[in-house]
Amino acid sequence: MAKAAVKRVALLLATLLLVTLLAYAAFSVIPGDPTHTILGLDATEEQIAALRKELGLDLPVWQRYVNWLTDFLHGDLGKSYKFNMPVADLLAPRVQATLTLTAVSFALIVVISIPLGIVAARFRGGFVDRAITVLTQVTMSIPNFIMGIGVMFLFALVLHIFQPTYVSPEAGLAAHLWFMFFPALAVALPKSAMAVRLLRGAILGELDKDYVRTAYSKGNATGAVLRRHVLRNAMIPVVTFLAMTIADIVAASIVVEQVFTIPGLGQMLITCIGKRDYAVVQAIVVILAVVVVGCNFLADALYRVMDPRIDGR
Amino acid sequence: MRKNWYLRIGGALSLLMLIFCAVGLFWTPHDPSAISAADRYALPSPAHLFGCDALGRDIFSRVLQGAAATLTIALAVLAIGAVCGLVIGGLCGYFGGAADAIVMRLCDAIAAFPSVLLALVVMALTGAGRYHLIFALGVLFIPSFARLVRGEFLRQRDLDYVKSARLMGVSPLRIVFVHILPNTFPVLLSGLTIGFNNAVLAEASMSFLGIGVTPQDPSLGYMLSEAQGYLLKTPWYAGFLALTTILLILGVGLLGEGIRSETGVEA
Questions:
Q1: What are B6-27's pLDDT values in tens digits?
Q2: For B253, which residue in chain A has the nearest alpha carbon?
Q3: Element (H, E) at A79
Q4: Which of A166-175, A283-292, A303-312, B200-209 has the lowest mean pLDDT?
Q5: Which residues pair with A80 in a beta bridge?
Q6: What burial class does residue A127 get, using C-beta atoms within 10 Å of its C-beta: 0-12 exposed, 13-18 middle, 19+ buried?
Q7: Which CATH superfamily groups domain B5-22+60-263?
Q8: In chain A, ranges of CATH 1.10.3720.10 domains
Q9: Residues 6+ positions from B19 with CB-CB distance below 8 Å
Q10: Cβ-Cβ contacts under 8 Å, B228 against chain A
Q11: Collapsed DSSP state (helix, strand, coil) of residue A1
């Protein structure tokens, strides 16, 4: 078990290394280097050579990668040439917005999907189940940004429940979270629909098994069987799904941030792709990639902890 | 036989939406980019079925044009992803070995990332544009198809009909592409519906962000980013665009669900 865990962690580190290498390589093949951006077109050869040396651009590629990675791990994410400030300072305030959006979305998915999934499975084939099935099928077909525009239109422009301009945490935590609730809804609803279906399917799959019949034959009530026996097994794929969902939530929040003009990582990413500020793009890509790899690792670990039948291969 | 409502409703809706999108390729009632000051913010009427936008452009024509663009891109992405995925997955699944292990690890790694995220990275490097978008998404869609097809080939390569073909001296490549391939059709068909929806979704999201198509050939997603600015004045512009996108995805999604319950293929 311990040996398997060490192997998993080693694999995680290797994956992270590979991902950073790929992110670095991808942004190194872009033709043209930042010296032109900084010095302008009429710089002399000497000026360019001096700056290249200063920025470390004259070193071999692998050396540059090692330097870049070392800096990255020390919190130096490079320098934005367009904003003329360190990338770390540029991104720090934006991480919070994206993190909050992700956390609220995740909480919403859990709160919405687990009760609905259980109810749908409990009343299999009934009216409630059918209504939930139709609802989830439709919700699953709505892209996040369309959901965002819909939420914006309904709650901000028609019902006037919230103002469609970003409320920062400085204006009060409650006001901030109240604003974030609406974009989070746009991120969470399509994902919740998928989670409901998965949970419903997992419960129904378990209900036909022998141990459930045994539990019933010992005189247990339906609720108790569901809670003590079925859910414990049915939750395994759902928890894995939820852990892996975090990566999708991050991807969805990039788009939804744009709809609600939230100054988060996603909005910065889009802005900097437009401005061709690759130092910032690279830093954000590496951060998001680490999040994705980390979530997959977490999902895998949770799966193993929750289901001891899976051996430590 | 039990009525397969998924297949019926999904099939009908998909067909309807595909025809709608295809019509936009050849015909629109007005020029989708013709500006008319007199028709600004016009309400839906017989002359302009869906009304007009802030520049007086006919919204029905624009929706048709956008739907056609989205359909073209999604189908092109699907073609690249499915054909390459089929070849890679088929060869890996049938022959196995070290090459298979390496290719599949790579596919797992790519598939672990949300496709919009990876496509954003590729588009950041190549720049916006319809063909760049098709290339980026097409390449990123290969792994999911390769994994799907590989699994099916792995399952079938030791079945009796393949063994007897091998005994009769059929060449391996012929076995892969002539004998096994047609039998992976149900799985592939279900995979195509999922892939199509993912392609529409990815294209719409990226174009909405302004990193997909260029304003010269707008798609549904690009137009939605325009329409969002006029939510108060012409909410029906965003509404019709959203409805078209959702119905297209819903129809194909239901169709896929129907195919799966008909053929007993797991998602």
A1: 888 888 999 999 998 888 888 8
A2: A141
A3: strand A79-80
A4: A303-312
A5: A85
A6: exposed
A7: MetI-like (1.10.3720.10)
A8: 88-306
A9: none
A10: 149, 152, 259
A11: coil
Amino acid at position B251, single letter: G
Q: Which residues of chain B have pLDDT under 50?
A: 1
Task: Give B267's contacts in chain A (Cβ within 8 Å).
Answer: none
A213: left (phi over 0), alpha (psi -120 to 50) or beta: alpha
Q: Which pLDDT score is estimated for A1?
A: 63
CATH architecture designation of domain A88-306: Orthogonal Bundle (1.10)
Tell whether A273 is within 8 A of chain B (Cβ).
yes
- pLDDT category at A8 given cuts 50, 70, 90 is confident
Residues A132-191 pLDDT 10s:
988 998 998 999 999 999 999 898 888 888 888 888 888 888 888 889 999 999 999 999
By C-alpha distance, which of B250, B210, B220 is closest to B65? B220
Closest C-alpha among B107, B183, B94 to residue B145: B107
SS3 B37: helix
Chain mean position to CA B240: 20
ipTM, interface predicted TM-score of the complex: 0.85
Which ranges of chain A does DSSP label H, i.e. alpha helix? 2-28, 34-39, 45-55, 61-73, 87-122, 127-140, 144-151, 173-207, 210-217, 222-224, 231-259, 265-275, 278-306
For A244, phi then psi, to 5°, come to -75, -20
Per-residue pLDDT band at A311 (split at 50, 70, 90): low
Average pLDDT over residues A295-308: 81
Cross-chain residue pair A153–B231, CB shorter than 8 Å:
yes
Q: Is the pLDDT of residue A309 over 60?
A: yes
Give me the residues of A, 210-269, that contact B with CB < 8 A.
Answer: 247-248, 250-252, 254-255, 258-259, 269
Give the residue among B192, B198, B184 at the shortest CA–CA distance from B249. Answer: B198
What is the pLDDT of chain A when averaged over all its residues?
84
From first CA to last CA, the distance across chain A in angstroms is 9
Give the pLDDT of residue A313. 44
* Contact call for B250 and A150, based on CB within 8 A: no
Nearest of A104, A268, A258, A249 to residue A180 by alpha carbon:
A104
Distance, in Å, from the CA atom of A222 to the CA atom of A205, rounded to the nearest integer, reads 16
Strand ranges, E, within chain B: none
**Burial grade of A168 (CB within 10 A; 0-12, 13-18, 19 or more):** middle
Q: How confident is the model at residue A31 (pLDDT cuts 50, 70, 90)?
A: low
| Contact status, residue B130 vs residue B152, Cβ threshold 8 Å | no
A305 in contact with chain B, both atoms CB, cutoff 8 A: no
Confidence of residue A35 (pLDDT cuts 50, 70, 90): low
Q: Reply yes or no on whether the pLDDT at A42 is more than 90.
A: no
pTM: 0.86
Residues listed for chain B: 267
Residues from chain B contacting residue A281 (CB–CB below 8 Å): 121, 124
Query: In Å, how far is A4's CA from the nearest CA of chain B?
Result: 19
